[in-house]
Amino acid sequence: MIGCRESARLLSEQRDHRLPWRKRLSLRVHLMLCGLCRVYGTQVSALCGICHHVGAHSDEAPGAMPEERKQQIKAAMSKEPR
Fold first, then answer.
1. Are 41 and 11 in contact (CB under 8 A)?
2. Is 11 within 8 Å of 44 (Cβ atoms)?
3. How far apart are CA 21 and CA 19, in angstroms?
4. Separation CA 66–CA 68 (nearest Å)
5. pLDDT (tens digit per residue) in 25-38
6. In the chain, N or C: fewer CB atoms in 10 Å?
7. Whole-Å CA distances, 38 to 13, 16, 24, 44, 76
């Protein structure tokens, strides 16, 4: 059985891609037993939703980040190891 630390990692990882079935099953079992991780999963989902909403409307916001700065951030993030 996985612990809370692994559960948190998997909750974040599943936002990027589909987990293998064994990891999905392990995460599901852990979430059935751990209320704190269920709350964390809900918070991660809510935060991702907020970020997507803000990102979709960021060009409309006053003081929106200049395109040049966005490109600099994207370039820096692509250089970081995952």
1. yes
2. yes
3. 6
4. 5
5. 999 999 999 999 99
6. C
7. 15, 18, 14, 10, 32
Residue with tokens 């996985």: 2
Q: Show the domain range for 16.
A: 4-79
Token representation of residue 61: 């916001």
**pLDDT at residue 82 above 60?**
no
Q: Cβ contacts of residue 58 below 8 Å, gap of 6+?
A: 64, 65
Question: Of 32, 43, 37, which is closest to residue 7 (Cα–Cα)?
Answer: 37
Q: Is 54 helix (H, G, I), strand (E, B) or coil?
A: helix
Per the structure, the count of domains in the chain is 1
Tokens of 34: 């751990």
Give tens-digit pLDDT for 37-50. 999 999 999 988 88
